Amino acid sequence: MRPQSGLSRDDMRTVFGALLAAVAAVLVSAGELPRGSYSKTCTLKPLGAGRDDTDQIEAAIAKCGHYGMTVFEPGQYNVTRKMTWDLVGSRVDMHGYLSFVPDIDYWLNASNTYRVVFIQNQASWFVVTGHDFVIDAHSSGGINGNGQPWWSHFHTVTREDGDGRPIAFTLKNVTRALVKDFRIESQPFWCNTVADSSEVVYDGMYCNATNQDPLYAGKNAVPNTDGINTYRSDKISLYNWDITCGDDCLAIKGNSTNIFAKHITCRGGNGIAFGSLGQYVDLPDIVDNVVLEDLKMIRLDPQVQPNMANGVYFKTWTGTVNSSPPTGGGGGGGHVSNVVTKGVSLDNVTVPVHVYQTNGGHSADAPSTLQFSNLSFIDWTGTSQRSTLVDIECSSGAPCPWMRFENFNVAPPVGTTATVKCVNVVSESGLPGCSTITTA
């Protein structure tokens, strides 16, 4: 008999239906108006090589960002300082790229970026706020992060969270928005973040962090180039993403609810992450109702990117506080529940499914109290580098109930026998060999 708190197949269909209805509502609300419906139009052309476009961009957004339309004609727009767009009832058509000059020392000065994303004190050089707007880059525009100098530089100095490397594209305090067919080339750090926002649809996102420096061939020269981190946000939908990176393709961070993603291609990196979570002892992390569907993990030429670590993985800090954020932390509570991963194709990933709750900790730490429950893995295919296909190691302080596997058909290396590892799992279905524990 299914535990009363678990989700049946009908329940899952209800979750899918509710999320899809929410997506449809956002698309209608944020959908494009006829061009003649906007009260004003601002059109920009690049000033040319070596010239600064920041002033003309800010002037156009100030004039047409509320109830107007802003059009970027093709070309590279040089941006030399941090920039915020406040968009209300408006549209931006980007046929060109915002090219952020790679002045590393300038951008690493904290006064030259925004710190609007609370988690890990991350920096942003470009922030969009507002409501009821569309940004359409027509698959021919977006952001050029000029990341290669950054990646090469940070092979010679220490990298750590909160060190000032800028997020390429940040949505903060946004409600009802559509970002469409947007390209981000060579992000120095995270490609996207959506924080403190709701009812946002990304339909078509391309991020490409590919090292071109021969000194670092065969190494992960592009760490921390996540496709997106969601944080403190609700009703976020991601369609048709193509991410080449050296870290998390998607990262679902704390207090992300009602997240829907479909048609996601991850090329290299760590796969799709839930976490890390539980880093802040006084701030519980709640992640609930997440549906990820039609996912592809593709291993690249190892000279370009050696990593393709996971299909989907879940991680928390331990229950002990070890130093303080952004580089340390732990002890935070909360839960992750009602997660569906469906239609997943794996190309020789290292560990297809992984759950662990010891991030940033030590063997003597207290166990995490953040619980994972009701995780579903449906219609998985492909190959694994290791014979351990599923490694679920839950905390003794919060054992995991309702781990569900259906049509999980991932192949281990030729000549090996598939194995699974389950630690502190209370209940599961469809995963032979998974040992469960009995709770009072």
From TrEMBL:
<comment type="similarity">
    <text>Belongs to the glycosyl hydrolase 28 family.</text>
</comment>
<dbReference type="GO" id="GO:0047911">
    <property type="term" value="F:galacturan 1,4-alpha-galacturonidase activity"/>
</dbReference>
<keyword id="KW-0624">Polysaccharide degradation</keyword>
<keyword id="KW-0119">Carbohydrate metabolism</keyword>
<dbReference type="GO" id="GO:0005576">
    <property type="term" value="C:extracellular region"/>
</dbReference>
<keyword id="KW-0326">Glycosidase</keyword>
<keyword id="KW-1015">Disulfide bond</keyword>
<dbReference type="InterPro" id="IPR000743">
    <property type="entry name" value="Glyco_hydro_28"/>
</dbReference>
<keyword id="KW-0961">Cell wall biogenesis/degradation</keyword>
<keyword id="KW-0732">Signal</keyword>
<keyword id="KW-0378">Hydrolase</keyword>
<dbReference type="InterPro" id="IPR012334">
    <property type="entry name" value="Pectin_lyas_fold"/>
</dbReference>
<dbReference type="GO" id="GO:0000272">
    <property type="term" value="P:polysaccharide catabolic process"/>
</dbReference>
<dbReference type="InterPro" id="IPR011050">
    <property type="entry name" value="Pectin_lyase_fold/virulence"/>
</dbReference>
<dbReference type="GO" id="GO:0071555">
    <property type="term" value="P:cell wall organization"/>
</dbReference>
<dbReference type="Pfam" id="PF00295">
    <property type="entry name" value="Glyco_hydro_28"/>
</dbReference>
<keyword id="KW-0964">Secreted</keyword>
<comment type="function">
    <text>Specific in hydrolyzing the terminal glycosidic bond of polygalacturonic acid and oligogalacturonates.</text>
</comment>
<dbReference type="GO" id="GO:0016829">
    <property type="term" value="F:lyase activity"/>
</dbReference>
<keyword id="KW-0456">Lyase</keyword>
<protein>
    <recommendedName>
        <fullName>galacturonan 1,4-alpha-galacturonidase</fullName>
        <ecNumber>3.2.1.67</ecNumber>
    </recommendedName>
</protein>
<keyword id="KW-0325">Glycoprotein</keyword>
<dbReference type="GO" id="GO:0004650">
    <property type="term" value="F:polygalacturonase activity"/>
</dbReference>
